Amino acid sequence: MRQWVMGLVSVVLVLSLSACGGSNGGNSSPNSSQPSNTSDTPPASTENEEEYLPEPGAKLTVWESQEQVEYMEKIAAEFEKQYGVPVKLEVVAGGDQGTRLATDGPSKLAADVLTMPHDQIAQAVKAGLLLPNDLFEDETRAVMEDSAIKAVSYDGVLYGYPKSVETYAMYYNKDIFPEAPKTWDEIISFAETYTDTKQNKYAIMWEFVGYYTYPFVSTLGGYFFGNDNTDLTDIGLNNEGAVQGFELLKSLKKILPMNAGDVSYDVKTQLFQEGKLALNIDGPWSIAAFKDKVNFGVAPLPAMSNGEVSHSFSGVKAYFVNSYTEYPIASRLFSNFAANKENQLLNYQMTGAIPANKEAGEDPTIKNDPIISGFFEQFSHSTPMPTIGEINAVWDPLQAAFRTIWDDPKADVKTTLDTMVDTIKTSISSK
Predict the structure, then answer these.
(1) Which terminus of the chain is more exposed, N or C, with fewer CB under 10 A?
(2) pLDDT > 70 in the chain, percent
């Protein structure tokens, strides 16, 4: 009798959701990017997953990258134990899942749930490939880092269930710095006595590309595009704040006397491994390169002279629900379940993934990790990488401006930035 009642409740929920969601409920092919909830009354929000029941006979397919399979097998087994829904895993590389969804989604061959980096959301939403995170929206917004929420939303609608985050921060050699420096002023003072080009010793390095040099753009008030990197008519790469940031960048040539093109990933990685580079701005993907070779910690990026905390670019990986799924409730339940605090901590323990969940980030296992805690703290001061395609018009001119300002002592910062912005505008308007 209990199973019959639960099944009946599930059917009612499915019919109710379909009534609210129109064609995006799951069984019919969507033809627009509108969220599944198109009525004036949003679906009921809850903090208790048990209030929603999977569709009778539901079974799910989940795409996962090879390095995450062992972790996901545990999640899938626990989900089936709690909800009675079997979960089949298919290995698909993380960067390929969005592309596969575009072709396999409409033909009903794609997974019900997949993981994508946030910068693939716009294209998927415009193609009508994703269901919004509507049933668990309030809960997700409450427990996840704000930057993660912003990253997995599009046009004001939340689509993703944040899984993990990444950004770059400052690696520091503990044999040189028992405590990480907190400001650029501290680093400049240290470099005056430490940097020695004849011995190949340097205080700090970062790559001269837009991703890593973004703090000099944004921290003092510059930006790529207005309205959270969506307004192409508003380019803030040559405003007063950006000019101040690039002036600071130019002044740092005295502590890193190398041409910008010579500061490569391989160069700084080797120097840090050899103990000749005291501070290295890099991401969590380089942990393995240093783990057994350097006594190091990770700290947030150095603050500006006025005390402003440096802003970095960040990426967010999240679970998403295929809009063509036959089981929209079960898929939402799984995505929310997989993204909860306990499972994000499990992912950290098994793979080193940095949680997007705020409480997970405050957990002692993270707080007491001298490496991951630094990245998590920096993430709270980050900006999600822009998702609009026009961002590709920025990278090359921006890198060229960085290098001109750094390498040419006679280059005027404002003039160089004005030229760069004109180049970007011309490139965007020609497409």
Answers:
(1) N
(2) 88
> Cα dist. 431→110, 226, 309, 426 in Å?
32, 20, 36, 9
* φ/ψ of residue 187, rounded to 5: -70, -40
Most confidently modeled range among 116-125, 269-278, 388-397:
269-278
Cα gap 206→406, rounded to integer Å: 13
On whether the CB atoms of residues 172 and 180 are closer than 8 A, the answer is yes
In the prediction, which pLDDT does 351 show?
A: 87
The one-letter amino acid at 97 = Q
From 3.40.50.1820, 3.40.50.300, 3.40.190.10, 3.90.950.10, which CATH number describes the 167-314+387-429 domain? 3.40.190.10
What value does the mean pLDDT of the chain take? 87
Tell me the pLDDT tens digit for each residue of 370-415: 899 999 999 989 998 888 878 889 999 999 999 999 999 999 999 9
Tokens 């969220």 belong to: 35
Q: How far apart are CA 414 and CA 13, in angstroms?
A: 59
Under the banding of pLDDT at 50, 70 and 90, the label for residue 305 is: confident
Contacts of 199 (CB under 8 A, 6+ apart): 276
Task: Provide the residue ranges of all domains of the chain, joining segments of one domain with +.
Answer: 2-166+315-384, 167-314+387-429
